[in-house]
Amino acid sequence: MPIRYIIKQIILPPGILLLLLLLAWWLHRRAPRLAVLCFVAGFGGLWLMSLPVVVEWAARGLERESPLAESDWAGLAQRADAIVILGAGRERGDPAWGEDQPGIMAMERLRYAARLAKASGLPILVTGGLHYGTPPSEAAIMADSLSHDYGIEVRWREERSRTTWENATESAPILKADGVTRVVLVTQAAHMPRSRWSFERQGFEVITAPIGFLGVPNGRPLGGWLPESKAVWQNGMLLNEAVGQLAYPLFY
């Protein structure tokens, strides 16, 4: 398992918040004031991460790309050369299927891309390497789902990437070898700014097709101020994206 995965889980919430609570317990006799500070930071951070209203607010700041109008789907063939679907993890060994399956967000991307492909006739590239280093690749799993669930055969598979930046750098030679320079990019709305930036740095003209918008009215009782387990996961994804959007221009 990559060491960077372990480090990431420790330094990003909820890992760092749980460590703060543990530190508060360890310091409660040695340094009571510092212990209180660690407890407030850890408990307060976990509480904020559990609120759907925080998901809504955070997503509004990250989801900067507009949705693709359905009336424009059929005309994509005149504006682009291919559809690119970014990988989004996998679920290991689901007994119902007898094999690995695309993750929840990957399924959102596949469904939307299938609609776009059927409306436009554009070929598809799926991109995503080995999840934690073991086969099959995310690209292979997505290609299998598109074939069996939507009756669409992908033209290209990129099976080496591990990050969004590598999605772009590893896909570039595959697509450019067939003269593809204009792509329709399919990924979550919050993930789209970083994805678009990565593909544009490889010389592609990008048409964004974001899905999975979270910056919409949450519809929960009391406006989303009650803790919810799903919000912890969503806020964690949004925080990871915020860090990625800040870090990518610095490192790449």
TrEMBL record:
InterPro entries xref list: Cell_Envelope_Assoc (IPR051599), DUF218 (IPR003848), Rossmann-like_a/b/a_fold (IPR014729)
Gene3D superfamilies, A to Z: HUPs
The protein, known as: Uncharacterized SAM-binding protein YcdF, DUF218 family
Transmembrane segments: 6-27, 34-55
Organism of derivation: Pseudomonas indica
Superkingdom, natural source: Bacteria
Biological-process GO terms, alphabetical: Gram-negative-bacterium-type cell wall biogenesis; peptidoglycan metabolic process
GO CC annotations on file: plasma membrane
Pfam families: DUF218 (PF02698)
Keyword annotations of the record: Membrane, Transmembrane, Transmembrane helix
Domain DUF218: 81-244
